[in-house]
Amino acid sequence: MNRKVAPLLKKLRYFGQSEKNAPHSEVSPYGRESEKVYRRRWQHDKVVRTTHGVNCTGSCSWKVHVKDGIIAWESQQTDYPSTGPGLPEYEPRGCPRGASFSWYTYSPLRIRYPYVRGALLRMWRDALKRTGEPVAAWKSIVEDPENSKRYKSARGKGGFVRADWEEINQLIAASMIHTIQQYGPDRIFGFSPIPAMSMVSYAGGARFLNLVGGSMLSFYDWYADLPPASPQIWGEQTDVPESSDWFNSGYLLVWGSNLPQTRTPDAHFYVEARYRGTKVVTVSPDYADFVKFADQWLAVQPGMDGALAMAMTHVILKEFYVDQPTDYFTDYVKKFTDLPFLILLKGEGNDFFVADRFLRASDLGMSSQHSEWKTVMWDQRTDRMKVPNGTIGHRWEQDGNWNLHLDDASGEGEIDPALTLLGREDEVVTLKIPHFEPEGKTVLYRGVPVKAIQRNGKTQYITTVFDLLLAKTGVSRGLPGDDPADYDDPKPYTPAWQEKLTGIDRETAAQIAREFAQNAVDSEGRSMIVMGSGINHWYHSDAIYRTILNLVLLTGSQGVNGGGWAHYVGQEKVRPLEGWQTIAMARDWGGPPRLMNGTSFFYFATEQWRYEDQGMGDQVSPLMEQPRYQHGGDYNYLATRLGWLPSYPQFTENPIHFYKKSGAKNDDEAIQYVVDRIKNKELQFAVKNPSHSKNFPRVMFVWRANLIGSSAKGHEYFLKHLLGTHHANMDDPSSDLTTQEIDWGGEAPEGKLDLMIHVDFRMNGTGLYSDLVLPAATWYEKYDLSSTDMHPFVHPFNPAIAPPWESRSDWDFFKKLAHTFSKLAEKHFPEMVKDVVASPLLHDSRDEIAQPYGRVQDWEKDGSEPVPGVNFPRLHVVERDYRKVYDKFIALGPMVKEQIGAKGLGWNAKEEYDRLKELIGRASETEEYRDCPSLYTDRNAAEAILSLSSSTNGSLAMKAWEEAERKTGQKLKDLVEERSEEHITFQEITSQPRQVLSTPVYSGTETGNRRYSPFTTNVERLIPWRTLTGRQQFYLDHELMLEFGEELPTFRAPLRKAAFYKGDRRPDVKRKEIALRYLTPHYKWSYHSTYWDTLPMLTLFRGGPHVWLNNEDAAEVGIADNDWLEMYNRNGVVVARAVVSHRLPRGVVFMYHVQDRYIYVPGSTISKQRGGTFNSPTRIHVKPTQMIGGYAQLSYGFNYYGPTGNQRDEQVMIRRLSEQEVDWLEH
Amino acid sequence: MNIKAQFGMVMNLDKCIGCHTCSVTCNNTWTNRPGAEYMWWNNVETKPGIGYPKEWENQDERKGGWVLKDGELELRAGKRTNKLLNIFYNPDVTPIDDYYEPWTYDYETLIESPEKQHQPVARPKSQLTGDYMEIEWGPNWEDDLAGVHETGWRDPNMRGLEEEVKFQFEQTFMMYLPRICEHCINPPCVASCPSGAIYKRDEDGIVLVDQDACRSWRFCMTGCPYKKVYFNWRTHKAEKCTFCFPRIEVGQPTICSETCVGRLRYIGIVFYDLDKVEEAASVTDEKDLYQAHLDLFLDPHDPKVVEEARKAGYADDWIEAAQRSPIYKLAVEQKIALPLHPEYRTMPMVWYVPPLSPIMDSFGNGVDGIHPQMIFPAIDDMRIPIQYLANLFTAGDTEVIRSVLKKMVVMRSYMRSVQLGRQPDQNLLKQIDMTEETLREMYELAAIAKYSDRY
């Protein structure tokens, strides 16, 4: 070993003379110079801290190794601030997807230059030559039906040619100006998801579009990641524990959330918690990765989760509330839930009653401010009805009574609310309760104790939410009605009842419920349920969620570290929220922005509404004779005209023309002009006629997303109607289900969009179908910020190399486009224009108390006056100077000095604004705004976000808590005093990720290096939830909720759907086919929902699109592992390879998310075109209850409340595709 | 006593989430270059399954490792003389298709395609030939039991389970097995090399291929029963996991360990007595190999061992490192880590803590056996058959597996009492022959696992 041998000699020698080390092994005779081969491989020149802007919620900090000026590889940072002793750390964070990201940098998928499809570029150059002016040139193309059809139908068919940035920006600016002139700025749309994953990059496009008056589309609801149950119960978008808090749990129920696969960097806390003695139970239809770690696996039938949860609710209520009441639980629900609040009953022929709405102070003749918004409880101390503090009525008065002290606001002392009226009832009456089964609906008859009150000279009955819940779940207290006798009685909602729906043994269901509750008793609420997209992507996801959340509310687990719900679907948590909102929504220059809910937009823009097959007759409560409308689209129009949902395009006319046309002298007159014309039917909401060319979306920007290839639910409808190109749709649009109010019109239009712009660093399904494909900097080439709800840190993106080739950061792209746009506007918009902007009645604004009692007061039907901001959208006049868009983009406007805030709290940022000028310099590039802080670079924007947010700037956190103190009358500032001097800067987070400060913008606290858990400040500091009662709500009393039978949590099965209906163009398939339920869970080998195309990830599984199915199902149709197959229904066709495995149950097929159609996808024998994406067999249905607005926590918020783009309720057919039938369609 | 220091690794399979981050970071750092595309020095397999390369554990075919012939250790593939006779044709070498044919795609078509009738698509192309190809196998083909209802029967660890197990939904079980070179104490690859190009470093036991001396005979590939020596088809040299020695030498853990997001890898030094290796590897009964291997390790706290180590030239910080070595704790003190296939007689130095798994009965009616107060499931009711684990880690000895799983279950039960502020049941500790102190130490290392304690 010690003898040196020259390398050359080694090369010449074929047999070595090894030295025996021991009889069984040998020592090399050579020296060890060759070790330098590997030493050199490891050497590198620098390491840069950056991260990935992917929508996966990971928000992991990475070390990027650079060698010879080239990005070589990445590995995880391990230097997060410590969680403290006795707790696992966050290091290392990262997954195989993140670890292979650098593949993109130099890959052949990389978009290096700006591209335009040749067909369009030729027309553009010709038109420009012909007209000599860009806007006229664009007009000449899009108004020529033949020309526009020509370039639109070429979408998705290749043919890209290089162009230069100048030319591109001119084309885009021309298309925008033409659209603004012709149709209005509200016909320009931007789609970019998940700001938290790269806030500045999101903000670049959003700021530009908001300054122009375009509309940003929401994503969280569109992705069906938003759990509508969260705003319904808590008035909160989503607020969940950081992942290390799982370790604090005593019992983990993991329900439809594949943690190792989808929360890879966090999964260790789940795994490690078991060693601390935490029991783990998983609910999953398949043997998924997360099931491997469980003590018990409940293999539920897909979509039947609500039945299991309702039975568990039944068990907990019976054993821990009725048989043996538990003090911890009783105290908790009295203080923190609506269970003790009183509900009015509606009499029905005096034999039966139905639950109606919350009793209000106004019902009792109490005449305090907002008395119609103050809910009432029964005080057992005085045996009287009392109005406690903290309701939404208290929220919007200024008396500091918005808190959870159980005090009567009138000062009569403490309230001890009665949970039940049993024992003090005036009577027991029988209720009719709506109930749903998979095959239909029935009415349950169950008794409740009631008090009689006199109202308007009539006797009316009231009872508590708790009594209603016991009646609903059939927990018997010996009252009349058809309560089940015991757990083995198959009546709803017993363990025996759920067994036939879920396939889960009744005793197991009862046992898990009992254990979950007992653990909460033993640990004071440390029982947790991790919930995921497995249960959140269904049409009735909100109903499913509410049934499951019963369990954490009833066990006092919510607002407790280690307890409560832990929903991880999508990524919504921008920790530095106010600063980001200000910059992204251009609030520093006024507003409001146009923020559109994605689901409604795509439902209409892609004409999916015309193919609707789910009549509302099936959906409404069995207590209703019929629904208000049969078609979901009509509910959407109702929601628009009543100001519940946003709706862009807004009206059938250009909103920048109203002001002039009206001849108004002031804004109010212009607004009245619009209202009057709507009322007189001279003007319409655009949504009333979505197929009319006046109401098309015209220009769309997509950046940081793969909208068409990944997020297009109803992919084929997107291709056909929005883009106007080839598609594989087999659906019959002439359905029996037509709209009553929305104009059906003639033929459904195809190719609505004039210009689709895709900004990305790699080619994908959106790029292929766009008109322009523009090169973006990757995540290793720009400055930005990252945060997540999985951990409490903020950390940066830093460039490891400069953007190569002609790529630009998103911020720079939009900045330079803004410059071109502003220059071109000098000619076309020489003056300021006044844009009438309609916006919905927003949650967390005073408008959330616009429509009392949750009654639907439809001015269009009942002849009442439409009043903006009351029963009609709020209208604003916004001045736009299109020549100044660029200057405003790069300067931080002065409005933040006066007002900044979030979630209904506002404060000023005067000192912080002035400090920013010092920190990042002034906007010297502008003429007018030279005294404003400069947002010229992405790094400046990042710094401004950190400076202007209470979670990252101690001085603002103090102001925020001060405001919260004023509103609640509670002492709160101490929550951040220890860190009030801190101001987290970009330089600091580049050194090390920093933990955010406690702020009232979120409902938990990090004070004292505590693990974040939501609602801990509600429970510990008595800050109310932002709901009607101020408490966590089981009961939702809006008229539409009652209409759909969802006032209480209830079981709802998946929609009844078939792969094909009569009239569809069903393919003639001679070979065997099998019908299966189609599920699209999150994929293990993709970067969350967007990236699946890197060579390392494709290599680590099957190299292309595939679907999983059970071995016995596969055998039935002659499919073997890795065979090609076709999967189809009326929506579209997929061609993929089969992955056959016994890990899947029978009856389902999984096509994991993100499998786009541009890698290894052959043609389909059915469509004669290339197979589609995983979203080809899907489409969406809108749920009316999620459209409710103007009513407390059910008011609209962008990405906060609104109908979700659910896509899970489909069936598909599958057949084998023989090798001979595989056609690569290379022509 | 001939004392040697050896780097070892323990992977706690009970924590493995099967994410393959280790594979990717290893691949990026070391092998994403021409000729090495198909090499995954670190790979992760779903078990049951035949793995990468196919059926690497089937030594009847693969001829790896050592066998005992007339009481003497001999390479299964044959003595040196056999090799010399067959030097230009090694009949047992594993062909590349059994690993997989590495591929890429004609990605550039997507941007460069002229306008066509149909949407362009990127098709797979072989990285070996450049031709279009169909993808039929890969380095992780059986991920999460893909296709395992068929391939599973070719997994040699299913031996003895044919009656008990059916690959059907209700009985599904799985585990992940991340694998690197074992850096064996008794490395057959070293013994197989006709050129003497493979060596085990004297100072730390890392096994390396001398890239200058390798003559492409490829006998090492056959000799290694774990199939962890690969052949670079571009340079024509054997290559293998280096235990990241360029990192190890500057005090950093291996890349696979540091980036292991499941936090299941531990690295440390152990001392062993080189003079006893042959005897230990030659015990007659395969089931005794685990204990024989354990007996090789020297107690780093024993003053005599410390003295010998000093004499052998090991610096004090190495001795201290051996004393606080998590490998020594997990393998020797806590006895929860086990060697992979001890029956190969290689004395491997990457050890594994076997995984727990859910109980079997969530489909049937049998909740009776479980106490409502959450006593954790009985070991024999778990989904992964004990015999399966025994076939992997103890040459079939199920008692050892039971004892390890029992320790983990008792740890959970004990810690649950602590968590809820109750008096832990001391009887449980007695049953597993542990004290509160050693159990706490086991818990700290398994659950809290701070960076400084893992490496």
From TrEMBL, chain A:
Q: Which Pfam families match?
A: Molybdopterin, Molydop_binding
What SMART domains is this protein classified in? Molybdop_Fe4S4 (SM00926)
User: Where would I find the 4Fe-4S Mo/W bis-MGD-type domain in this sequence?
Assistant: 45-109
Compartments in which it is found: Cell membrane
Q: What cofactor(s) does the depicted protein rely on?
A: [4Fe-4S] cluster; Mo-bis(molybdopterin guanine dinucleotide)
Q: Which InterPro entries match?
A: Asp_de-COase-like_dom_sf (IPR009010), MopB_CT_Nitrate-R-NarG-like (IPR037943), MoPterin_dinucl-bd_dom (IPR006657), Mopterin_OxRdtase (IPR006656), Mopterin_OxRdtase_4Fe-4S_dom (IPR006963), Mopterin_OxRdtase_prok_CS (IPR006655), MopterinOxRdtase_cofactor_BS (IPR027467), NarG (IPR006468)
Record field: catalytic activity: nitrate + a quinol = a quinone + nitrite + H2O
Q: Which molecular function GO terms apply here?
A: 4 iron, 4 sulfur cluster binding; metal ion binding; molybdopterin cofactor binding; nitrate reductase (quinone) activity
Tell me which stretches of the chain form a coiled coil: none
The alphabetized list of GO BP terms reads: nitrate assimilation
**Gene3D superfamilies in the record, alphabetically?**
3.40.50.12440, nitrate reductase tail
One Gene Ontology cellular component:
nitrate reductase complex
Please report the record's description of how this protein sits within the membrane.
Peripheral membrane protein
CDD domains named among the record's database cross-references: MopB_CT_Nitrate-R-NarG-like, MopB_Nitrate-R-NarG-like
Q: Where does the UniProt entry say this protein principally localizes?
A: membrane
> What Enzyme Commission number(s) appear in the record?
1.7.5.1
Write down the top EC class of this protein. oxidoreductase
Q: Which UniProt keywords apply?
A: 4Fe-4S, Cell membrane, Electron transport, Iron, Iron-sulfur, Membrane, Metal-binding, Molybdenum, Nitrate assimilation, Oxidoreductase, Transport
The Swiss-Prot or TrEMBL record describes its family as follows: Belongs to the prokaryotic molybdopterin-containing oxidoreductase family.
Concerning PANTHER family, the annotation shows: RESPIRATORY NITRATE REDUCTASE, RESPIRATORY NITRATE REDUCTASE 2 ALPHA CHAIN
Protein name (record): nitrate reductase (quinone)
